[in-house]
Amino acid sequence: MLFPTIEFAVFFAVVFPITWLLNAHNTSKKVFLTAASYYFYAAWRPEFTLLLLTSSMFNYGAALVIDRCKYRRHRLPALWLAIAVNLGLLGFFKYYNFLVASLINAAAPVGLTIDLGFIELPLPVAISFFTFHALSYIIDVYRRVLPPTKSLLDILFYISFFPHLIAGPIVRANKFLAQTLGPRDPAHIRLGESVFLILGGLFKKVIVANYLATGFVDGVFRDPTANSSFDLVLGMYAYALQIYCDFSAYTDIAIGVANLLGYEFPQNFNYPYRAVSVQDFWRRWHMSLSSWLRDYLYIPLGGSRFGILATYRNIMITMALGGLWHGASWAFLIWGCLHGAALMVERMLGITAGGGRTGDTDDDGAVAQRSPLVRALGWFITLQFVCLAWVFFRAPSTDAWLGYFATMFAGRSWSTTMTPFLAVIFVLGAFSHILPPRLFDDLQRRYDAASLPVKIAAPFVVIYLIAVAAPSGIAPFIYFQF
Amino acid sequence: MTHADPAALPPPAAKPLRTAALIIYGTFILLALTIPQSLTNWLRDMNDNPLQSVALRGTEAWQAVTEKTRLPAVYRHARDVFIAVSGVEPD
Description:
With 482 residues, chain A is mainly alpha-helical.
């Protein structure tokens, strides 16, 4: 069930009133929302709801066992066992075939034959996301940041809650479980913000991401060598815009929908292509994953506490695994390592998240604000790096990205197949980063202060116009495969 | 788009739930009134079952009523103009 579909609109039209009617009866509400979330998940493949249920029940029990261990030396093995089971499940579905194929390919040149079969199961949708939600819960219980919940229902609800289930944002257990303790206050609904997030998400996904994908990007990446160099340059930037509009659309709608049901989700994107360094980019792109990797991988590895070499190692491990989290392929690993290498280089050069230099200021980049030229240069270099790295992310094979770069840098032909209509879509998508944030804030404020008929008419007009201009089919969200 | 600073926003509406419900269902009703064919087409694409049959008959009746207002024709015309101007493939 995709967000920008009639199916989801009907689903939400049923879920919204029942949720609030049951609000005073918190347990009944959670039972209902959990059942609705399992129905939402079952819309893809009903059999995988069993996997979701098993994973949730296991982590519920694991947290109780971890908490029962008084001493850290006893809790740690229990935690490792729970992590191994979670990652084992993820690894089986997501990485087993990749590992087998890599082993076979590595053994072939030396004359070894490895007789391991491949599994022929589809990848369960959202397995990476619900595994990370579960890990956040058991690790927080281990750290005594969060007491384990005695309620299995709360865990089933937390892990399966449909707005974040399929593609995030990754909501921390301690943030979400606190919201499940009692009825939600309707006064916490931020109508203007939710409406804008949902409408903006629909526009970004249905219009920008879909047209760029089907009209240009897919064709350019299908056979890069058949395209002009200029088309490949445009394809690289178009994909950067497509993946942003696709993924941020999903999480924007998720945040808006959750808020209409009374729940708070963390922000997941903050103008990532305005970043003035790669570190800054990761503080703006998929923020819930970046902070998850920082808190549950980078810092436990030692972070930056054990010298410069250990810091570089920890950065590379974190980014390589972050790359692999997206999928089982060498391209994702290379993409993660490229970002890791860029972060290392920035650290060597003393560049902070804000574009200033380490030691000059804190990470908010106060110095950078005093040197617009440095910021502009930082922004330009970061944008080129991020867009070039996306080619690895998007290219279907090693041959594809090799061909892509070879043709792009060959300077062969500067003609383009991008139509004027797609160029307009490209510019409209770019406006998501060009327009100042305070313009959106101002519009939200005006919307909140508007009369009820205007409040109803505005979303209607926007959705109507989107329907007029929509392509005839909606492609699945890119991050569904992760 | 980012989260707005809550401190910079006006205080919440007096009856936020009622307002939210009116916005959601008001929008859905207006869309069903102006683009009823999307509901009908969606139901036609579904697998046959008793509920789908009843719902399809209902939306077909609804579409027949709304056609008299000529609002669905406005949408079709707008869509045709968009396709002609943009050059995208027709449905």
